[in-house]
Design brief:
With 182 residues, this protein is an alpha+beta fold. The protein has one domain (5-181): Cyclic Phosphodiesterase, Chain: A. Helix content is 26%, strand content 38%. The chain has three helices and ten strands. The chain has helices spanning 16-29, 58-74, 104-119, and strands at residues 5-13, 38-40, 47-57, 78-88, 95-100, 132-138, 149-150, 154-157, 159-166, 173-181. The strands form two sheets. Strands 2, 4, 5, 6, 7 and 8 form a six-stranded antiparallel β-sheet that branches. It has a four-stranded antiparallel β-sheet with strand order 3-1-9-10, covered by helices on one side. A hairpin with a 6-residue loop joins strand 4 (78-88) and strand 5. The longest helix has 17 residues, at 58-74.
């Protein structure tokens, strides 16, 4: 990656109240023996990913901002409920996640974003969108085999944020570069 490109994604930040509730959930999960093998995501890095963009030029991501303004202004803010904490996408996975409902307003927003991305030459996503917030990752080769736990939180989806992702041995660090309100 050159100095003129960044690793980035589009996401939704979590409100402080949701992050506080997730802190309590993670603290409870951390009491389980399996948690010794989990690297928990720092609360400041928790988010709902809408689209991963990969390495992109700065010019492309700032052009994207203008293109997504119409999408964001045509979608209204909406609530979203969580469903459970589980291994994601399944029990064989190394990700511990808060799974969220695939509500119609969210699926419409993601479809609208994907359409803009494809129209601007970004790689298309072929996988079905499964909304979740990553809480932690197991060590390589390990999986979260705990039974799913019911979890009822309410998130407010009010904006789309472009995050820069910087990887290091200490973990990823996400920095918001721009935000568009719904």
């Amino acid at each position: 990656m050159s100095k003129e490109s960044i690793r980035c994604f589009l996401g939704v930040p979590l409100e402080p109240e949701v992050n506080d509730a997730l802190d309590l959930i993670v603290a409870d999960l951390n009491l389980l023996p399996a948690a010794r093998r989990v690297r928990w995501v720092d609360a400041a890095n928790r988010h709902l990913t809408l689209a991963f963009l990969g390495d992109q030029s700065l010019a492309a991501v700032f052009d994207l901002q203008a293109a997504l303004q119409a999408v964001c202004s045509s979608n209204k803010a909406f609530p979203l409920r969580s469903q459970r904490v589980s291994g994601f996408p399944d029990a064989k996975s190394s990700i511990v996640a808060l799974e969220l409902e695939a509500a119609d307003p969210l699926l419409k927003l993601v479809a609208d974003i994907r359409s803009v991305l494809t129209g601007h030459g970004f790689p298309g996503e072929v996988r079905r969108y499964r909304p979740h917030v990553t809480l932690g990752r197991m060590r390589r080769g390990q999986s979260w085999k705990q039974p799913p736990q019911s979890c009822e939180l309410r998130l407010s989806i009010t904006s789309v944020v472009l995050y820069q992702s910087r990887l290091s041995t200490a973990g990823a660090r996400y920095t918001p570069l721009w935000s568009l309100p719904l």
